[in-house]
């Protein structure tokens, strides 16, 4: 696994995590139980911290980063990702907060100060500009993203199932050694 120090900070992993060999996880990064990091992900907890919840998957080519603390922004912007979150391929998440049971479609970009409440779909290729709040229970699409419609019961159930599918997949990878 490509885990590395940044200054005195080293990544912390929960139980049964999977990190693919080509991924880089550096600095103040914490992964919850049963979470997975897939090929070519870069997670840099250098100038602030990254927290990833349980059963969350970060898919191929995604970049996770943070914003440093400053006089105008004393806390900076850490990156906080909740439980049962699926982050699609080639996403960019920068200094934002994602709740639980969220699916971020491939190629989406989520900027500093964004808050995504629980139970949200973000469509592929969407851009969430800085400091926006996405309300629970909706699909958001576009660049910049707009609230498209309320999620139906099947879509809400799929949010949790998507995360569980990746728990099963990472278990297969771990069993292979």
From TrEMBL:
Q: What Pfam family is a match, any one?
A: Hexapep
This chain belongs to which protein, by name?
Answer: Gamma carbonic anhydrase family protein
